[in-house]
Specification:
The chain has 15 helices and 16 strands. It is α/β, with parallel strands linked by helices. The chain has 3 domains: 199 residues, 2-enoyl-CoA Hydratase, Chain A, domain 1 (Alpha-Beta Complex); 139 residues; 52 residues, Nucleic acid-binding proteins (OB fold (Dihydrolipoamide Acetyltransferase, E2P), Beta Barrel), CATH 2.40.50.140. Helix 11 runs parallel beside helix 13.
Length: 425
């Protein structure tokens, strides 16, 4: 029968694509970068027509807000998520335990553990009792609903929140908190193959495990992961506000404003207030603004350097190939940033040369012309003169009178140092 099917496929020219599974690895705290990483991995799997997503999980926890968005993403997914606590010695703590409960198939290796999902403040301080009860009750009801949907232990889903319970993967599997206990990844995937899982509101479908296609963390993920750590994001946000305050109260410092502006956009991305792509666009526009300002403001390079960094980071965030079909590799981003830097450096050099030339020409013209005193003060040592059709302030060692003719020795800003022209009789 199989031989007959194969012959028919060859005769009819039917192309049968091999099954595939996109694999991702999460080894850091759960944050906005994790959400972005999983979103892009799922889109990649759908684009490649892969049948499932394999998540290697080893995390101490992280942002509850990011975790909620990740759970929503998994529950709404059109392909199954297979999540495994790995390697041996790893754990799915706090946010990781919650994500594990949402996965269509969950498992762990020997010497791994799962649990301890009681909500706490990111600062480590004690939470007010009323707020603590509210957050725990809300999280418990949420977790019970997820556990019921996946057919797992609702008692365990309550205990990890209310009692900060944590179990080894062996005990968690016995209590029905996870589905599979496997000695390695290969065995986990074999046991996951063919399991019936519920996708969205559709009927149950069997899990299909194909050839693993790694979706490795890229530079975009690494940069996001750096700024999206909850504590770091908070410090970045507050520090950026402080730097902007310094710039507003002490205009002209430039560097605090540049750093504060870039940091503020990055912190808004970390707080999920800006989508990653929109945040990338904001950084690029901010960087272009800095580069243009560099032509008109003497910042000693602070605006230019800040602008180039902003454009570079924004370009990393701007396009998601799975969403837009576009991809900006470093081989494109780096030359563009370098060319922008060269262009604005050249323009800045020309602008500086022009200003220097104008300054030199003005001083030369003033020294060649004669002026007339139109007002005096301080005993004739200070006042105003009319020269080249303009009125200037003057300072003179010798006392002058109105209508005296003077010659300019030098200029200090908007004040001319002059001497009286002595007429021969």
């Amino acid at each position: 029968m199989k031989l007959l099917v194969s012959v028919l496929i060859l005769l009819l020219g039917i192309k049968v694509s091999a099954a595939c599974t996109v694999a991702v690895t999460i080894n850091e705290a759960i944050s906005a970068s994790t959400l972005d990483y999983l979103e892009r991995a799922e889109k990649s799997a759908i684009e490649k027509k892969c049948d499932s997503l394999f998540v290697r999980l080893n995390t101490p926890g992280g942002s509850l807000q990011s975790t909620r968005l990740i759970v929503e993403k998994i529950l709404a997914s059109s392909i199954p998520y297979m999540c495994l606590i790995t390697p041996s010695g790893g754990h799915a703590g706090s946010a990781g335990a919650i994500i594990l409960q949402a996965c269509h198939v969950s498992g762990g290796l020997p010497a791994t553990n799962v649990g301890a999902a009681t909500p706490i403040l990111g600062s480590g301080e004690q939470m007010p009792e009323d707020l603590r009860k509210k957050m725990i009750n809300d999280t418990v009801s949420w977790m019970e609903g997820v556990a019921k949907l996946r057919g797992r232990s609702q008692k365990f889903s309550r205990d990890i929140v209310t009692e900060a319970a944590s179990l080894s993967s062996e005990d968690a599997q016995k209590q029905g908190a996870i589905d599979i206990l496997a000695v390695n990844e290969t065995e986990f995937l074999k046991q996951a193959q063919g399991r019936k899982v519920k996708i969205g509101e559709q009927k149950e479908i069997p899990v299909v495990v194909g050839d693993l296609q790694e979706f490795a963390p890229d530079l975009r993920y690494k940069v996001l992961n750096l700024v999206a750590d909850p504590e770091f994001a908070y410090l970045l946000f507050m520090g950026s506000l402080a730097l902007l305050y310094v710039e507003v109260t002490h205009p002209g410092l430039i560097a605090p404003g540049v750093i504060g502006g870039v940091g503020l956009v990055l912190s808004l991305i970390a707080f999920h207030k800006l989508d990653v792509a929109w945040g990338g666009l904001a950084l690029i526009l901010l960087g272009i603004g800095f580069l243009i300002a560099e032509l008109f403001v003497p910042s000693f390079g602070a605006l230019g350097i800040g602008g180039l960094i902003s454009v570079f980071v924004g370009s990393l965030f701007l396009f998601d190939p799975q969403t837009t079909g576009y991809h900006l590799p470093l081989s494109v981003i780096t030359p563009v940033v370098l060319v922008l830097g060269l262009i604005f450096l050249s323009l800045g050099y020309l602008a500086f040369g022009t200003l220097k030339l104008k300054k030199r020409d003005l001083d030369h013209d003033l020294q060649e012309a004669e002026g007339m005193v139109v007002s005096v003060e301080a005993g004739g040592h200070r006042g105003q003169i009319q020269i080249m059709g303009e009125t200037w302030k003057f300072v003179s060692e010798d006392p002058l009178e109105i209508t005296d003719r003077v010659q300019v020795n030098s200029r200090q800003g908007l004040t001319l140092l002059v001497k009286k022209v002595k007429r021969s009789r």
